[in-house]
Design a protein that fits this description.
The structure is a single chain. With 409 residues, the protein is α+β, with helices and mostly antiparallel strands. It folds into three domains: 130 residues, Butyryl-Coa Dehydrogenase, subunit A, domain 1, CATH 1.10.540; 112 residues, Butyryl-CoA Dehydrogenase, subunit A, domain 2, CATH 2.40.110.10; 146 residues, Butyryl-CoA Dehydrogenase, subunit A, domain 3 (Up-down Bundle). It has 13 helices and ten strands. Helix 8 packs antiparallel against helix 9. The mean pLDDT is 96. The structure holds flavin-adenine dinucleotide. Flavin-adenine dinucleotide binds next to strand 1, strand 3 and helix 13.
C-alpha cells in the first residue's frame, strides 16, 4: 500500500519545531531587528558576523537543544532523536516554507549535518566522542565540513591536504576553501591524503579527522563573500603542522572518501527540501500579490501571462516535492539511491531557482526589493546549483548510473 500521509511522529516534530520558531525565535528577532537587518552592523570589516550575532545564534541553538528540537536527525547512539531521511526531508521543507528566506536565526533551531553533530560522528572513538559531543549536542559549539580546496572542487579526489603520522599524532598541512560555517566553527571534519598513490588511483588513500579550531596550526585565513555581500558564511581554512591526536581519526584510515560521500548525499536531500520549502513560500506570496495588485483596471491575477508564471511554478514545485519524498523513502528503505539523489538535487534546485525568478517577475519591482526577501531565496538556490555537487556533476552521476545499467525508476 502506498500511504502519502505524514506519519504522526514526523508531524509532531514539525509542529514542535515551528512552534519553537514562533514562540522563541521570532521575539528574539524582533528585539534585535536593527542588528539582524543591517548588513553593515551584522558583519565586521573582516567579513565575520559580529560577536553579538554569533551569540544570538548560539542562544537559539542552545534553547532549541533544551527544548528537544535541535538534534532531530542525530543518530540515537550519539544522543539525538534519530529521525530518518523522510523526516529530514519533511522537517527541513517545513522550516524553509514557514520561515522563508533572508533570516539568520530560525535556521539555527535545527542541527545541520555539517555544522551540528552529524551522522559521521558515529565513526569517532569513544574518547573523542566524550570530548566533542556534549558541546555539539547542546548547540554551544558548531562544526564544519572541510573537503573542497582551491585546486579541488568537483574533482574531490584531487585534494592535496596531507596528514603525516608522527608517533601517536597526525600532522596536517594544506588549505581548504569554501567551507560553510568555517569562519565560526569550533571543530572541522577535515579530509586529507594519507596514501597519495592510492588517492591518485581513486581507490582509497583519503582519511578524515575531526579537529579543534583552537589547536595551534589551525587558521581561518579568509572569510569569503559572495553576491556583493559585506560578510560571509564561508571560509578559507589553512592548516600548518596542525597536530591531531590519533583518536581524532574518523572511521578507518584511508577510507575517508566514503564518509565524505555519505555526508554529501544527506546534503542533497536537504537541498531538495530547501528548494521546495522556499518555492512554496515564494509561490504563496506571489499568488497573493497577483490577486491584490491592480494594473489596467483589474488584478494582475486575471492576466493569463501572470497565471502561467504561477502555474509553471506550481507544476515544478509539486514535481520536486514528490521526487524528494520518493527519494527519501528509498534511502529510508536502505537503497543507496545514488541516481535518484543526484536527480532530485539537480531538478529541485534548478526548478526552485526558476520558481523564485518567476515569483519576482509576478511581483514586479516589489519582487526585487529587500523587503520581499525573494532575492535571498534566489541567491540560495543559485548557490546550490554549484555547491554540494554542481548541476553538471549531478548529470554526470545520473548518466554514469544509466550507462552502467541502472535504468530503474
Ligand atoms: C556557498 C558555497 C558553500 C560551500 N560549502 C562547502 C563546504 O561546507 N564544504 C566543502 O567541502 N565545500 C563546500 N563548497 C564547495 C563546493 O562543493 C564546490 O564549489 C563544488 O563542488 C564545485 O567546485 P568548484 O567551485 O571548484 O568548481 P569546479 O569543480 O572548478 O567546476 C567549475 C565548472 O566546471 C564544471 N565541471 C567540472 N567538472 C566537470 C565534468 N566532469 N563535467 C562537466 N562539467 C564539469 C562544473 O559543473 C562547474 O560548472 C561550497 C561552495 C559554495 C559556493
Amino acid at each position: 500500500m502506498i500511504d502519502f500521509r505524514v506519519p504522526d511522529e514526523i508531524q509532531e516534530a514539525i509542529e514542535g519545531l515551528l512552534r519553537f520558531v514562533d514562540q522563541v525565535v521570532v521575539p528574539l528577532e524582533e528585539e534585535h531587528r536593527d542588528l539582524l537587518e543591517d548588513g553593515h552592523r551584522l558583519y565586521s570589516r573582516d567579513g565575520r558576523l559580529v560577536a553579538e550575532a554569533q551569540q544570538l545564534m548560539r542562544q537559539v541553538r542552545m534553547a532549541s537543544a533544551r527544548a528537544g528540537q535541535y538534534n532531530l536527525f542525530v543518530p540515537t547512539e550519539l544522543g539525538g532523536r534519530g529521525l530518518g531521511p523522510i523526516a529530514l526531508y519533511l522537517v527541513w521543507e517545513a522550516l524553509y516554507h514557514h520561515a522563508g528566506p533572508g533570516r539568520l536565526l530560525p535556521y539555527q533551531s535545527l542541527a545541520h549535518w555539517t555544522s551540528g553533530p552529524g551522522p559521521h560522528l558515529r565513526y569517532l572513538s569513544q574518547v573523542a566522542r566524550q570530548e566533542v559531543l556534549p558541546g555539539l549536542l547542546s548547540g554551544e559549539k558548531t562544526a564544519c565540513f572541510a573537503l573542497t580546496e582551491p585546486g579541488a572542487g568537483s574533482d574531490a579526489w584531487a585534494i592535496k591536504t596531507t596528514a603525516r603520522q608522527d608517533g601517536d599524532v597526525w600532522v596536517l598541512d594544506g588549505t581548504k576553501k569554501w567551507i560553510s560555517n568555517g569562519p565560526y566553527a569550533d571543530h572541522a571534519l577535515v579530509f586529507t591524503v594519507t596514501d597519495a598513490e592510492a588517492a591518485s588511483r581513486r581507490q582509497g588513500g583519503i582519511s578524515c579527522f575531526f579537529v579543534d579550531a583552537s589547536w595551534p596550526g589551525y587558521e581561518v585565513a579568509e572569510v569569503l563573500r559572495i553576491y556583493g555581500h559585506v560578510g560571509g558564511m564561508e571560509a578559507v581554512l589553512r592548516f600548518s603542522s596542525l597536530r591531531v591526536p590519533g583518536q581524532r581519526l574518523v572511521g578507518e584510515l584511508h577510507k575517508g572518501f566514503d564518509i565524505a560521500l555519505q555526508g554529501v548525499n544527506t546534503g542533497r536531500l536537504y537541498n531538495c527540501a530547501r528548494a521546495v520549502g522556499l518555492s512554496r513560500w515564494a509561490l504563496e506570496r506571489a499568488t497573493r500579490y497577483a490577486q491584490e495588485r491592480v494594473a489596467f483596471g483589474q488584478a494582475i491575477a486575471e492576466y493569463q501571462g501572470v497565471q502561467w508564471l504561477l502555474a509553471d511554478s506550481a507544476i515544478e514545485t509539486y514535481a520536486a516535492r514528490m521526487m524528494g519524498l520518493n527519494c527519501a523513502w528509498r534511502i529510508e528503505q536502505g537503497e543507496p539511491a545514488v541516481k535518484e539523489t543526484a536527480i532530485i538535487k539537480a531538478f529541485a534546485t534548478e526548478a526552485g531557482f526558476r520558481t523564485i525568478d518567476r515569483c519576482m517577475q509576478v511581483m514586479g519591482g516589489v519582487g526585487l526589493s529587500n523587503e520581499a526577501r525573494l532575492y535571498d531565496a534566489w541567491h540560495q538556490l543559485r548557490t546550490v546549483r554549484i555547491a554540494d555537487g554542481s548541476a553538471e556533476i549531478m548529470r554526470r552521476t545520473i548518466a554514469r548510473r544509466l550507462l552502467r545499467g541502472d535504468l530503474s525508476f
